[in-house]
Each structure stands twice: as structure tokens, then as C-alpha cells.
Amino acid sequence: MEKFNTVISRPAPLDSSNVDTDQIIPKQFLKRIERTGFGEFLFFDWRFNDDGTINNKFILNEKRFKDSEILLSQENFGCGSSREHAPWALRDYGFKVIISTSFADILFNNCFKNCILPVVVNEKELNYFFNSTLNLEDYELEVDLQNMVLSDNKGFSQNLDVDPYRRKCLLEGLDDIALTLIHEEKITMYENALSN
Amino acid sequence: MRPKTLFDKIWNKHIVHEEEGKPTLLYVDLHLVHEVTSPQAFEGLREAGRRIRRTDKTFATMDHNVPTLDRHNIKDPISLQQIETLASNCKEFGVELFDLASPYQGIVHVIGPEQGLTRPGSTIVCGDSHTSTHGAFGALAFGIGTSEVEHVMSTQCLWQNKPKTFEVRVGGKRPQGVTAKDIILSIIGTIGTAGATGYVIEYTGETIRSLSMEQRMTICNMSIEGGARAGMISPDKTTIDYLIDKPRIKSEENLDNLTKEWLKLASDEGATFDETLILDASKIAPQVSWGTSPGMVTGIKDKVPNPKEIEDPVKRKSIEDALNYMGLKADTPIEDIKIDTVFIGSCTNGRIEDLIAASKIIKGNKVSSRVKAIVVPGSQVVKYQAEKLGIDKIFKDAGFEWRESGCSMCLAMNPDKLSPGERAASTSNRNFEGRQGKGGRTHLVSPTMAAAAAIKGRFTDIRSYDIDLGEY
User: Fold this and answer.
1) Which of B78, B151, B438 sits opposite A177 (nearest CB)?
2) Coil, strand or helix: which one is B65?
3) In angstroms, rounded to a whole number, what is the distance separating the alpha carbons of residues B342 and B50?
4) Quick one: fold of B289-464?
5) What percent of chain B is modeled with pLDDT above 90?
6) Residue with the larger pLDDT of the pair B463 and B22
7) Which of A30, A162, B307, B423 has its CA 20 to 30 A from that of B291?
8) Is some CB atom of chain A closer than 8 A to the CB atom of B103?
């Protein structure tokens, strides 16, 4: 896995709660057998009109949010199916950080496997980020996982709360399977005990 | 000794490795695989030169993509590629596959229990969020992503942070027509779609105990829609009675000992949970979802909510968005909502009891002229059972289409899908925007409510029917 580096970007404000994985990547795009190339289908039914043209009313299509690497969303982001195609699409599109008041469990896990950092903040902070990115011209958030700081260019700063093990995996780009195989002897012991 | 929950007992027994500040390495007893979330995992194994550690604990089926009409003639080339990729991967890596030619093929969460692969006390994972279904047997079962699928294939283990426990205790007598589906929809409506995030739910109480295994599966199946990592029910006599004649279990040498062990897994008297919700089943009405998330649900005699009455701006906006997508006006009585399509099937409600109950409502009636109705059995075994009972004929005579098994219109990855604006009464589990087809409008209901809606062309209160549904 690639290493997670500090992200500085204007956050894209997706003002919806319970954004489910069917919206993040609609099922017609789940048939690919690769891990790559899902970005162009991210939020497909919202980003594009029925005739395939770009939906200019959708927030991610606004020019100022086009290159955002941070996505803001309301509570319970990523509920629904376990499809890892959702973080594949988010990452491939360019998002490296997702900020919400809460995340669905499976998507939260899947993000860490794909070099995306999900950040939980409280409602007041989330509202502040939404308002700032919508109203301030040069607004940017900085996510510094190395030093565990979430800050903006307007004076906001606070500590990030990330599970230390997951932080290490992201920063070092560690392969989960290789890490587990360090314990192979223990797995074998467990299996032997099981069959006795 | 401190009383333990079912969850504690299973968790403790599956710890391979733990250390301070890290998740726990947990052993996986059963890994179920399907065509959509596995190709990239197999590819990862190939690239790293790894093998599947325990092919004897890994089983695959094809369900999400398969057509339900002419299943041996898959017209969508990408679907076909995914199906063929699973077959060749299973062959290459030595995984037992229930393919389209198998008399045991079906939805992964229907065939696991049906074949006796699902066992009390075991840890079960699958690249599918509805893996929680298997928790009905007193297993710890949950959905995982494709990276984790690859991880389990290589190591037969998973890193897991220990979830908290949530007891949902349901008591009181269900009124006739109020099914397991109505209970779980009502639970999700109460706790919300994120109400159990970070928790494993154990469903307890006299009402849950009185449910059949198939109904228990319906309850556990939708745990994920309440945000839970898993849902589970302590094993009892009902569990054992269901399992002892299943193919992979009946030949066990020490079946008596095994069943005794299974019964010991039940949560101990006095075991405590981190959270508890108590519900009275006698007060639950048949449920109908009106919005675009399974928590947006209400009783059949109620009305579509009015966003103007909601103070919280985030909630108000999500209701406005949902009504806009669903093409519904605030304050519309649920019974006035007309439907175009009925789908009976899925891993939530595609088992034989579901089809029998729905057929009792259908018998001697005709599907409304405005409605297109299909029944998709959850597996080939369910289809065979139903045909032996003559249920297929009841559905067909009424104007339903009788299909081959698969996930079908639950997620519309195969040709069964809604058109934009088409409104469905569906026995599936998700009413997300576009879930059953772009622009399609889904109302989640029980099989009997779906059957009644098919005949009336709109939602109707099943409680007023003078039909004996038995214990369903």
C-alpha cells in the first residue's frame, strides 16, 4: 500500500447524511474485476444527468471543489454494502481524507486498507468546515497524520484521534497480510488445538 | 465466574493473538465467497504468490449477477466475465463452488444455513454486509471488504477491534400479520441506521425465542441496516432442530456432543450488555418504508412524515430529499401509495417459509392489472421445495413470474431492475436511491405485505385479512 502523506486541500462539502455505498459507487460498476479505474464512476448518479452530461448542480462538479482531496459529509457516511469498490472509487477520484460526524463500520475499515483517512469530528466542527469551505475563498484544511493535527488556514487547530496501529499502517504503507504472517506460528498452533 | 454473553464466548474462543494497543487477531471458521467482491482478492493472491490457507473452510457461490430467467445465457458480457472469473479462480485455488449447474446454488446467505455450513459458535465472514444473517444460529458473522477477503484467504484470520454489545430484547405477542421483517424494520426505525454502529446486537426475549430459524435469519440479516457489526441470537432447541438434518451436519459422528456444546453457547443468565433496547412486539404494526434509508419506516396505518414538523435541519433535509426522490407528498396515508412492481425474494425474505406465507395471501387472487410481480426463490433448494408444495403454481396462477434463484432485484446487478420512477413493494433490505435500478422507488415490506400489495395495487393492512398464517 502507498504511504499516507500530509494532505492540504480545500474540502468538498457533500451536505447529505447516510450517504450509502450504492451512491458512492452504483452497482452497475461493480462488475469490473480490477481494483483500479473506479474514480470516474464515483457518485455517478449524482455527478451526471440521465443523458450523461455533467450535473452542474452537484457540489463536487463546482470548479472550486474539483481538485479537493478532502470530502466533508454528514453523519453515517458509507452505510450499506461492504463493497470495497466504494473506497477504491473515492481514492481513485482523488479523496485521501473523509470527514464526518460518524462512519459506517465496514466502510471505515475499508478506508484504512486503501490509504484513505476517515476523520470523526463533532457536529459543531463539521458545520464550521462546511461553512468555511462554502464561504471563504482561499479556505484550506490540513491533515497531518504524522503529528496528529487537523488544522486550517484560519487559525483552527486540534489533535487528530486515530487508532495508533492504524496510524502506523497508513504512515508506513504496511501490507496487512505480511504483518499477520509474522504470527503464522500462532495461527498454526491455534489450528492444531482446534483439530485436537 | 462472571456471566458471559454469547458474543463474549465466541470472541474469546477465537483469539489467535492479542497485544496492547493493537486489534485482536481472530480466527475465521467459515469464509463464504461470491463473484462480486472476490476477483480482486484472488488477483492479489496471485500477484503475491500466496495460496488459500484453508480451502476446507472456504466456499463460493454465484448469486449477485445471475439472471433469473435464462441463467445459462448471460447476455451482459461483464457479468459473464465476473461469473467465469469466479469459476476459474475457484478451480485454480481449489475452492468448492456452488455454480449455476449446482442444485444447491443460491444466495450465499441462504445456502450457508441450508447446507449446514453455518454453525453455532463459529466465526463467519463474507465480502457481503448481509453476512450478519448467519448470526441467527449463534455465530459471530459479519461482512468484510475485498482486502479483508484476501487477508482471510491467506491467513484464515482477521484483525478486529472488539465491538461493544447491544441487547435488543423483544417481548409481547406479535399480532397476526406482524412478521420478523416488521420487527426488524421497527427496530431500525427506533434506533436509526447508525444506532448500533460499533456494536454487535444480540436479539433476546420471548418474541425472538418464539421465532422460527428462517424468521430469526430475517432479523439478523438486517442488523447491518441499523449499523451493527453483527446480529446474533443464542442457540436453543429451535436452532438444533433446524440444523440436525442439514447435509454437512447430519453425518457428524458426535452430533449429540456437538449439539450440547452449541446449547452451552447461549448468553448466561445475568450477562450484561453495553446497551439495551426493549421492544413490545404487540405494539408493532406491519411496517412500510417511505424513504431512502431503512430507518425511514412507519406503520401501515400511518402517514408519510412532514419535514416541516422536524426541527433538526440535517434530519429535515434528509426527509425532504427522500420524499423528493420517492415522489411522495408529506402526510400521504401509506395505504394510499400505489405500486407498480412487487419483488418477493432476497437473502432477507427469500426462504421457503416466506414463500409459503406469501402464497397464502395470493391463493385464489389475481395480481392487480397495474402491477408486475416476481418471485425469486433464495436458492435452488428453496425453488425445488416450493415446486414440490405446488406454491409456484399458486404464484403463477395469480400472475406472478416464477424465477430462478439469485439476488435479483434486491440490488439489480442482473437484468431484474426498476425503471426510473417505478415504485416497488420489495421484501429486500435496502431502499437506497437507485438500489433497485436508477430512479427506482423502493418500499421495504414483509412478504405477506408485498403479496397483499400485489393484489390491491397499493399498500394494505395485512392484519385485516382472515387468513391463518400459522406461526409466520
Assistant:
1) B151
2) coil
3) 45
4) Aconitase; domain 3 (3.30.499)
5) 97
6) B463
7) A30
8) no
Flag if B154 and A181 touch (Cβ within 8 Å).
yes
Q: Which of residues 178-207 of B touch A (CB under 8 A)?
A: 193-194, 197-198
Q: What's the gap in Å between the CA of A55 and the closest CA on chain B?
A: 15
Closest listed residue to residue B131, CA positions, set B139, B303, B4, A22: B139
Mean pLDDT of the B298-319 span: 95
Please write the tens of the pLDDT for every residue from A93-135.
999 999 999 999 999 999 999 999 999 999 999 999 999 999 9
As assigned by CATH, the class of the B6-276 domain is alpha beta
Q: CB B227 to CB A81 under 8 A?
A: no
Interface residue of B12, B14, B17 to substitute, partner A, most A CBs within 10 Å: B17
Q: Looking at chain A, which residue has its C-alpha nearest residue B435?
A: A22
Give me the pLDDT at residue B1, please: 81
- What's the grid cell of residue A6? 500530509
ipTM surpassing 0.90: yes
From CA B273, how far away is CA B321, in angstroms rounded? 36
- Does residue A196 surpass a pLDDT of 80? no
Q: What number is the average pLDDT over the span A164-180?
A: 91
Model pLDDT, residue A195: 83
Which residues of chain B make contact with A109, given a CB cutoff of 8 A?
144-145, 148
Task: Return the CATH number of the domain spanning residue range A7-195.
Answer: 3.20.19.10
